[in-house]
Specification:
Oligomer: single chain
Radius of gyration: 25 Å
Structural class: mainly alpha
Number of strands: 0
Shape: rod-shaped
Helix content: over 70%
Order of helices and strands: H
Strand content: under 5%
Low-confidence stretches: none
Distance between the termini: 88 Å
C-alpha cells in the first residue's frame, strides 16, 4: 500500500519550490522596475533643474 502522505509531501514540496522560485523572480523584476523608475525620475528632475534654474556664475 502506498503512503499518501509521502506522495502528497513530494507534491507539496515541488509546488512550494516552484512558488518560491516564482516569488524570487517576481521580487527581482519588481525591484529592477522600481530602480528604473527611481533613476528615470532623478534624471528627469536633474534635467528640469538644469534647464529652468538660473545659472550661477
Amino acid at each position: 500500500m502506498v503512503d499518501v502522505r509521502d506522495e502528497y509531501g513530494d507534491w507539496l514540496e515541488f509546488h512550494v519550490g516552484r512558488i518560491n522560485v516564482f516569488e524570487d523572480r517576481f521580487h527581482q523584476t519588481f525591484n529592477d522596475t522600481v530602480n528604473e523608475v527611481v533613476n528615470w525620475s532623478r534624471h528627469l528632475q536633474r534635467n528640469i533643474r538644469d534647464r529652468y534654474s538660473p545659472k550661477l556664475g
